[in-house]
Amino acid sequence: MKSMSKKFVLSVAMALAAAPAFAGGFVELATSDPLRVDGAALNAEDPLFLGFDSTFSGLLPSQFIELASRATTVIDDESGQELGVFHDRVFRDTTDNRLVFGSRIELTLDENGFNPFEINDIQRAGFTGYSAAVAWWDATGSDYRLKSAARTAQGLVKTEDGILPDTFDADIVDMRTDASGPEGNPLSGWYLVKTDAVGYSLMNAAANVYTANEDVSPDVEDRWIAAFAPMAPVPEPSEYALFLAGLGVLGIAMRRRKS
Q: What is the pairing mode between strands 118-125 and 172-180?
């Protein structure tokens, strides 16, 4: 009996060890207070943690089909230095056929493995009229987690009274991070926004790589760059024809009423 009990305990332990080490997935962002959804330092307690690449070689979730990707070198306007690379991708989630916008910041390290910059928020624009649910994915094992997210244009700002509260903004999804050269966290995770938008387009000033340094009365710096954003699908020529035909029928009906 003791031998069987030990084997049972061992098998349960092995099953738990093999189980996925995550607690959550995509969380729908609210449109009224409380706006901000907080993550957690432990993946097993983090409602925003979607999962990780078991090979830690940069793979993304297998249910994602990539539709578009681009990488933008971000320059710090004040110093003129290269801050890093913003990775921007659009996916189709085959589990529900929805679009997912992926964001990742990779700080550029010098020959000594150092970067003086810190990123506190990544913001994406273009979500007015669409839903927005967030999650994050660890692709390398060294990715910095998604600390929190909200539908707001308010990045991290600390005052003597604390962090400024969020104000709802239907257009902006704010994703808080702590990608930092001085702190040895040069790589964010993949921060993912799932939406019910059915189309996307490359737009100017659609992503913001934001710095506030987490100090009281910080010098806030916005760095808006071109990125993919949700949009309504462009009608096909046949749809235009149907639309015009419908207007014609409506016009005839109105003329008959007048006569």
A: antiparallel
Residue given tokens 């994602």 in the structure block: 64
Cα angle at 185 between 91 and 63, to 5 degrees?
20
CB 13 within 8 A of CB 128: no
CA–CA gap between residue 209 and residue 174 (Å, rounded): 10
Question: What is residue 256's three-state secondary structure?
Answer: helix
Reading the block at residue 136, the tokens are 């994050």
* Helices and strands in the chain, H and E counts: 2, 15
CA R_g for the chain: 23
- Residue 187: closest CA among 126, 238, 115: 115
Mean pLDDT of 63-87: 95
Rounded CA separation 140/186 (Å)? 12
Q: How far apart are CA 35 and CA 257, in angstroms?
A: 51
In the chain, where does DSSP find H-type helix?
A: 2-18, 237-258
pTM of the model: 0.81
Angle at 47 between CA 145 and CA 16, to 5 degrees: 95
Q: Determine how many CB atoms are found less than 10 A away from the CB of residue 19.
A: 9
Report which of 182, 154, 149, 199 is spatially closest to residue 48, judged by C-alpha positions.
149
What confidence tens digit (pLDDT) does each residue in 14-61 have?
A: 333 333 445 679 999 999 999 999 999 999 999 999 999 999 999 999
In tens, the pLDDT along 118-170 reads: 999 999 999 999 999 999 999 999 999 999 999 999 999 988 888 899 999 99
Beta carbons of 225 and 207 less than 8 angstroms apart:
yes
